[in-house]
Design goal:
Pfam families: APH. It comes from [Mycobacterium] nativiensis. This is Phosphotransferase family protein. With 327 residues, the chain is α+β, with helices and mostly antiparallel strands. It has two domains: 105 residues, Phosphorylase Kinase, domain 1; 208 residues, Aminoglycoside 3'-phosphotransferase, Chain: A, domain 2 (Alpha-Beta Complex). It is built from eleven helices and nine strands. Strands 1-2-3-5-4 form a five-stranded antiparallel beta sheet, with helices on both faces. The longest helix is centred in the C-terminal third of the chain and has 27 residues. It is globular, with a radius of gyration of 20 Å. 39% of the residues are buried.
Length: 327
């Protein structure tokens, strides 16, 4: 549909929540390989006065593999109640009837998501402050009550194996990583709410402050170390040096100490190391899967093809990690 048609439908969808509104300034935002994001204002007029609501619309195909829009909304609300900074969800619907695809509408949060721009505005003190806030946000997410939310609790190693096998493709390094992970699997941890993609690029930063945690489509139940390790993958440093391995902000020990302090727990080093290997393998498989979407003709995209070229980077990272050398 055209932007004007989408704006008209949005106004009708929002009417029960905000009353009669007009949608202005509807514009597509960049980013997101699987879902589309739009920013707009919903304007409600009463006499000579008008009230403007700055909102975000996220839409995605009904057959995608990630968490549904309604499930994502429930998880965000649970995280918010636990103290995590998240956008306030107005509406979410898994039906395609209203807008052509399932959707989620939330308030717009001021700040920056582009990592290079965030990096330019941070000094050492700002990075240390933001790193501590990221640890605190994860602690809040992990203590959220997932009761009543139909979240998956899939074995993540098995999920990686299945995703790679479905492409009928593999590499020697990936297979070595699978064998190591099977041989060193830690004991099962209590299931907690896991964001699934907590990293720089999925966070809104306003100055030195963490304003919001975005992109909840991979939310599930699992091991809290999954989120901690994912934040520390080399891919999410965006070129920062190894002494800032935690999100490109600071060292891993400081990050885990800040998390332990906020969560009132300790982080087992061996468990974290296992998840760091699994996270790196998972990212490599995601890169290969995104390339497959392009190569198969399912979704021709220079972006997907470019992501596919990063498979070799993850193989190098895995070789270093499996040899006991930080990636």
């Amino acid at each position: 549909m055209t932007a004007d048609q989408l704006a008209d439908r949005l106004a009708r969808v929002l009417a029960p929540e905000l009353g009669p509104v007009t949608v202005e300034g509807l514009r597509a935002l960049t980013g997101g390989a699987s879902r589309s994001t739009w920013a707009f204002e919903a304007v409600a007029k009463t006499g000579e006065t008008s009230q403007r609501h700055a909102l975000i619309l996220r839409t995605g195909p009904p057959d995608e593999l990630h968490a549904s829009m309604e499930l994502e909304a429930h998880a965000q609300r649970a995280a918010h109640r636990a103290g995590a900074p998240v956008p306030s969800v107005l509406l979410a619907d898994n039906s395609s009837a209203a807008l052509g695809n399932p959707y989620l509408i939330c308030n717009e949060i001021a700040g920056e998501t582009v990592v290079r721009r965030i990096e330019r505005q941070l000094d050492d003190t700002g990075r240390e402050h933001l790193l501590r806030q990221c640890a605190q946000a994860l602690a809040a997410i992990h203590r959220a009550d997932p009761g009543g939310i139909a979240l998956s609790a899939e074995d993540q190693l098995a999920a990686c194996r299945g995703q790679l096998d479905a492409m009928h493709d593999t590499t020697a390094v990936f297979e070595w990583a699978f064998r190591w992970l099977e041989a060193h699997r830690p004991p099962t941890a209590p299931a907690q709410l896991v964001h699934g993609d907590f990293r720089m690029g999925n966070l809104i930063v306003d100055g030195f402050e963490l304003a919001a945690v975005l992109d909840w489509e991979l939310v599930h139940l699992g091991d809290s170390c999954e989120d901690l390790a994912w934040f520390c993958l080399r891919a999410w440093r965006f070129g920062a040096p190894p002494d800032r391995a935690a999100g490109g902000l600071g060292d891993i020990d400081s990050f885990l100490a800040a998390y332990a302090d906020a969560a009132g727990t300790t982080v087992d080093a061996d468990r974290f190391a296992w998840w760091l290997v699994l996270g790196t393998l998972r990212w490599g498989i995601i890169c290969r899967w995104q390339a497959e979407r392009h190569l198969s003709g399912q979704a021709r995209s220079v972006e997907l093809a470019t992501i596919g070229r990063r498979v070799s980077e993850t193989e190098w990272d895995l070789l270093r990690l499996l040899d006991g050398v930080p990636a």
